[in-house]
Amino acid sequence: MPHRTADANEKGPRLTLAQRYGLAPAPGPKLSQQEWTEVHGKSLSRNDLKHGCPICCEEFKDEEQVLLSCSHVFHRKCLRSFEKFSKQRVCPICRQEEYQKKCILDARERYLERSAVTIQAAYRGFRMRKWYHRIRESDAPKDPVSRREYYADQLGEANNKILKEMTDSRRDIEALFADIDNSLRLSKSLNRATDRRVAELGRGEVVGAVHAGGPNVCKRVDWAHVKETSRKRGDKECPICIVPLVRTGRKKRLAWLSCSHVFHLDCIRAFEGFQDSQGMKRTCPVCRAEEYSRLPSAKAPRR
Questions:
Q1: Using an 8 Å Cβ cutoff, are 61 and 115 in contact?
Q2: What is the pTM of this model?
Q3: Hey, which residues does 65 pair with through a beta bridge?
Q4: Level-2 CATH architecture, domain 17-111
Q5: Is it the case that residue 100 has pLDDT exceeding 60?
Q6: For residues 19 and 26, is the Cβ–Cβ distance under 8 A?
Q7: CATH 3.30.40.10 residue window(s) in the chain
């Protein structure tokens, strides 16, 4: 595989004032392409890629790596951190000063190649195992001992499939019975709530019901005063569904409670049904008034 490098080398250090005036030795000239090839060959001969980065002691994998003019290789980010915190420009291994750097991609190419080989090997192993099981299922061995083991395995697999189907069916039946038990439990709670409500209504405070299990009309409540109080308060929306009280469609009936709050008839019925199912006392959704009376209207009035 041909070696690929980065497009441009990293810039070297800037010359100091003493180096510019010849008072201190300046760094050597930049290495040529042939010299970089020789430096890279030294690094490959030592197999530096196999040992990993000398700074973090981890594999290079597909991270950026940098080759120094002294032939040592590091992670690019590790060398930057070393230069930043050591505040000097020397090789962490051989202590060469004023080195030159060049980005290389050897480790990334090797890592990608190794990953591709691993994926291909796993896929080929999967295909071969699948082919082997298919051949083994279709062709019984000729040896008596192997033939007995073959049919025993076939019988075991068939038995496992039957047990799995029976287990799934049993789970479905158990789930069905659990749903039936929950439905019966809910029905019993509703019946108990209805019995308690009927017992409360039998005390003589309420005269009669509009329909079976429906709202009751109380003689002692001044419904005209209740409606007038609701109109003065300016109730325009149902407190349960937050929808205007005057709706379009067939279901336009409203229900006033003895506490002067007004709701949609279907909304208050649903709310009362929920309270009954939970074994709770019926209370007004707004003011929490208990033992209220409810008066449904034939249709919603104009507002």
A1: no
A2: 0.36
A3: 75, 104
A4: 2-Layer Sandwich (3.30)
A5: yes
A6: yes
A7: 17-111
Contact in structure between 199 and 283 (CB atoms under 8 Å): no
How far, in Å, CA of 94 to CA of 46, rounded? 15
Greatest C-alpha distance within the chain: 118
pLDDT tens digits along 157-166: 888 888 888 8
- 21: tokens are 């005036």
Q: How far apart are CA 289 and CA 129, in angstroms?
A: 73
Q: For residue 220, what are the contacts with CB-CB under 8 A and spacing of at least 6?
A: 205
Rounded (10°) angle between helices 265-277 and 144-201: 110
**Do residues 255 and 299 lie in contact, with contact meaning Cβ atoms separated by under 8 Å?**
no
- Using pLDDT thresholds of 50, 70 and 90, give the confidence band for residue 120: very high
Q: Which CATH class is domain 208-296?
A: alpha beta
Tokens standing for 116?
Answer: 């591709």
What would the pLDDT profile of 55-79 be if each residue is shown by its tens digit? Answer: 888 888 888 888 888 888 898 888 8
Top pLDDT among 192 and 121 is at 121
Going by C-alpha positions, the residue among 213, 209, 212, 256 that lies closest to residue 231 is 256
- Structure confidence at residue 208 (pLDDT): 37
All residues at 6 or more sequence positions from 205 whose CB lies less than 8 Å from its CB, including other chains: 218, 220
| Per-residue model confidence (pLDDT) at position 299 | 47
DSSP for 170-184 reads HHHHHHHHHHHHHHH
CA distance 286 to 274: 16
Alpha-carbon dihedral angle through residues 85, 86, 88, 92, given to the nearest 10 degrees: -120
Tell me the Ramachandran region of residue 135: left when phi exceeds 0, alpha when psi lies from -120 to 50, beta otherwise. Answer: alpha
Pick the range with the lowest mean pLDDT from 50-54, 174-178, 215-219, 288-292: 215-219
Distance CA 32, CA 172 (A): 77
